[in-house]
């Protein structure tokens, strides 16, 4: 693949809007989110994978699974699988997905910075 001079490379990575995990669109599409697949069910569902992930995110944090990491606690990801996580994810889950999470007893907190503690 060749890119014309002056054009940025296409952004291939996306962040899960529920947990912040960063992966390629193909990984989300084929495998879902390693943290959220049991509740979001977007593996093999291209439309839902696009609606529940965002190509726009800020910062990256590598989490190695160490539960004593202050950064993991700060981002509320200390119980998630090791990997790359976005600090902030632009966008919010669609209303129907949020309602489904509510029905499952899951408290959705957008990762876009709009909810303050």
Describe the structure.
- This protein has 117 residues and is of the alpha+beta class.
- It is built from five helices and five strands.
- The protein has helices at 25-31, 37-40, 46-52, 70-74, 95-103, and strands spanning 13-16, 22-24, 53-54, 57-63, 83-89.
- A three-stranded antiparallel beta sheet has the order 2-1-3.
- Strand 1 and strand 2 form a beta hairpin.
- The protein is globular and about 35 Å long.
- It starts with 12 loop residues before the first strand and ends in a 14-residue tail after the last helix.
- Mean pLDDT is 87; it is low at 6-10.
Please specify the SSE layout and strand pairing:
Blueprint: E1 13-16, E2 22-24, H1 25-31, H2 37-40, H3 46-52, E3 53-54, E4 57-63, H4 70-74, E5 83-89, H5 95-103
Antiparallel strand pairs: 1-2, 1-3, 4-5
Protein name: Transcription elongation factor SPT4
Organism: Candida boidinii (Yeast)
GO biological process, one term: regulation of DNA-templated transcription
Beta percentage is: 15-25%
Largest sheet: 3 strands, antiparallel
Distance between the termini: 45 Å
Number of helical stretches of at least 4 residues: 5
Summing up helix and strand content along with how strands pair, one would put the structural category as alpha+beta
- Low-confidence stretches are 6-10
Order of helices and strands: EEHHHEEHEH
Proportion of helical residues:
25-40%
Rg, Cα atoms, Å: 15 Å
Number of strands: 5
Shape: globular
């Amino acid at each position: 693949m060749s890119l014309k001079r002056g054009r940025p490379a296409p952004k291939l990575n996306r962040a899960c809007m529920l947990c912040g995990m960063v992966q390629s669109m193909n990984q989300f599409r084929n495998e879902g989110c390693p943290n959220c697949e049991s509740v979001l069910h977007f593996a093999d569902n291209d439309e839902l994978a696009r609606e529940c992930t965002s190509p726009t995110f800020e910062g990256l944090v590598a989490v190695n699974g160490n539960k004593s990491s202050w950064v993991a606690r700060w981002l509320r990801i200390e119980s998630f699988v090791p990997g790359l996580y976005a600090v902030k994810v632009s966008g919010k889950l669609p209303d129907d997905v949020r309602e489904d999470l509510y029905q499952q007893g899951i408290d959705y907190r957008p990762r876009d910075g709009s909810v303050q503690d």
